[in-house]
Structure formats: structure tokens, C-alpha cells
Amino acid sequence: MAGVPTGVSAGAHPSPNIWWHPRTYELENRAVDPGGVIEAAIRRVRDWAGVDVLDVGCGTGFHLPRLAVDAASVVGVEPHPGLLAAAGRRVAGLPHCELRQGSAQALPVADRSVDLVQARWAYFFGPGCEPGIREVRRVLRRGGAFVVIDNDPTRSTFGRWFRRAQPAYDAVAVERFWARQGFTREALDIRWSFERRADLKAVVRIELPPDVADAVLAEHVGTDVDYAVNLWWWRAGLSVAPPSVRVHGEGTAAIHTGLPLR
Ligand SMILES: C[S@@+](CC[C@H](N)C(=O)[O-])C[C@H]1O[C@@H](n2cnc3c(N)ncnc32)[C@H](O)[C@@H]1O
Hints:
Blueprint: H1 16-20, H2 22-31, H3 37-45, E1 52-56, H4 64-68, E2 73-78, H5 81-91, E3 97-101, E4 114-120, H6 130-139, E5 140-151, H7 156-165, H8 171-180, E6 184-193, H9 197-207, H10 210-219, E7 224-235, E8 244-249, E9 252-257
Parallel strand pairs: 1-2, 1-4, 2-3, 4-5, 6-8
Antiparallel strand pairs: 5-7, 6-7, 8-9
Bound molecules: S-adenosylmethionine (SAM).
């Protein structure tokens, strides 16, 4: 199952979970963040009602219908042709919703044509992704915003699992990278909430190596997992904000500032 599927655009970062297991990834997307913490946080940065939105690395387009409810227009960009086709089936009939094949490093989008760019669970945005960030800056209008949602391995049950799977992951280096690029971090507390234990098990097995998956499933009971994520955000045309961290979650709200991460 290794390698890159046929027809994937140049520059795509391997994404084995959704590339090889799109049905299980759909279960994961349905279980993520039942409290809507991520959506509320993105809307605080740049509400998408009435504006033009771009979802980079949209996968099977899970988030597109939600964006399309009140955005003026939604474009999904995805390098994997099979996933793009699935996204097309999902949004068929939705007005103002369009899909284009491509990668973050060469966005098939006109200069200064969008107001909000989102990338969710986008491993292609992190240290070394400067070409993609330049592209996003090119397509954003003044006052527009770029938001990236990614794992925060420094906190939560899922964060502990992630660290076991990827002990070399350097969260401090990741935070320094985003701060140097002028991004602000908002730390969010969300959770996975599955209907069935079998779904949780299937998702854990596409997200973690087999030995780590076996170990965490043996320890963890139930169908819910607390899960910390980072929302990295940047506004076009605003001065660079100092590094800061805000924590929001279901039932919690606290302010933290400064580096380094715990
Ligand atoms: C973990 S999936 C997340 C999909 C979607 N954002 C979601 O939340 O359901 C990461 C996605 O990024 C895409 N991807 C990988 N490298 C990319 C790149 N360089 N530019 C744009 N998308 C990329 C993958 O094909 C995959 O669909």
C-alpha cells in the first residue's frame, strides 16, 4: 500500500489514511469535534458567511457542504484525482461550489480572489511548506485569512498516542516555524466521538502503526477520545502578531502566551 497513487499532482504529501482508507477516514471525519469547537474558532478568525472560501487539501470534500451553507463561493483543491471525484459527488448540485485538482505549492486559483483559505489536517503545511504559504498569500485578498488545523501532540489523550507513534515529532520546532511565518496559534480542545467501538478501532488502525494501535486500544475504553489540535492563523494585510496561544474547548477557556510549548 506504499507509494503514490496514479495521477496524483506533483508535490502531494503522502496521506495514507485517506488515500488508502477513504471510507474509514469518513467515519473519522464524522466523529471529529461534535461540539463544533473548530468551526467556531475559524469563524472568530474570519467568518466565511458571504465571502469566497478555498479548502486546500479538501480530500473527499467532507467540509465543503458546511462551508457552502453561507459562503458566497467555495473552491476545493485536492491533488488526488480519486478523492477529488468523491468530493465532486458530495457537492453535486450545491451552488457556488467548485473543485480543482492541484497542490498547495501551485494553487489553481487566481491572485487575490479568496477571503478565507482553510487546510484541515494538512501535513503538507508545516516546516518546509514555504512555497505553499506563498501561494496562499498570493490568492488571499487584503483582510483575508489563512487557517490551518493540525494535531497538537503536547496535550490530550490523542496527543499522547501521536507522540508514541511519532516520537521524533518536534512540536517546539513546529511552533517556531509558524511563529516565524507570522502565524498565531490557538490551542483547541476537541474530541472524537464515535457511535460504535468498532469505528473507533478502525480509525485508530489507520492513524497509528499497528503496535501502537494495539497498545492504545488495550488501554482505552469507550467510544470517545479527548483530542487537542492547533489552529494556526494569519490575516493578510495585518501586521505580524506576537507569538501567542489561546486555549478554547468544550467547557474550557483560558489564555496562555509565549513559547515554548509544554
Ligand atoms: C489527512 S487528509 C485531510 C483531508 C481533508 N482536509 C479533511 O479534513 O477531510 C490530507 C489531504 O491533503 C491532501 N494533500 C497532500 N499533499 C497536498 C499538497 N501538497 N497540497 C494540497 N493537498 C495535499 C491529501 O491528498 C489529502 O486529501
